């Protein structure tokens, strides 16, 4: 037998939309995702890390990092998640990408360019190979606005 409840409102799109408080966080905010790593199942920790990675790939420019830290009061190792700036993210995760990203932004400062122009322009004088620049455009797609060019190629500009 089922109980029938009356006048229970439907959840909003943002209510219960995320398991973790990513949408409420500002740069520098953090939360404890797991209070005791040693006593937690590996799959739970992997789930948290996967959620952080998926959130970073959402494409809205908000980035998050997780790290194991020690709680000074309890002495236990915990898993904490931070919202970070793009510069901090690059410094911590992929510092090797920074020169290529700066190069692409420098190219785009005067206006939109095609994918071909970005990947092939000034290869001898500026950082990044064709492949590295293509990887940056794909990995950091949220940094750029794209549109179709006259020949159906992709045109990039700074978002």
Sum up the structure in keywords:
alpha+beta; Arc Repressor Mutant, subunit A; 3-stranded antiparallel beta sheet; about 30% helix; extended
Short description:
The chain has 159 residues and is α+β, with helices and mostly antiparallel strands. 31% of the residues lie in helices and 21% in strands.
Description:
By secondary structure, the protein is an alpha+beta fold. The chain folds into 2 domains: 70 residues, no CATH class; 64 residues, Arc Repressor Mutant, subunit A (Orthogonal Bundle). 31% of the residues lie in helices and 21% in strands. It contains 5 helices and 6 strands, in the order βαββααβααββ. A 3-stranded antiparallel beta sheet has the order 1-3-2. A hairpin with a 5-residue loop joins β5 and β6. The mean pLDDT is 85.
Quote the distance from N terminus to C terminus: 54 Å
Question: Largest sheet, described in full?
Answer: 3 strands, antiparallel
Helix content: 25-40%
Count the helices. How many? 5
CA radius of gyration is 21 Å
Question: What's the topology here?
Answer:
Layout: E1 30-34, H1 42-56, E2 63-70, E3 77-84, H2 86-93, H3 98-108, E4 113-114, H4 115-120, H5 130-139, E5 144-148, E6 154-158
Antiparallel strand pairs: 1-3, 2-3, 4-6, 5-6
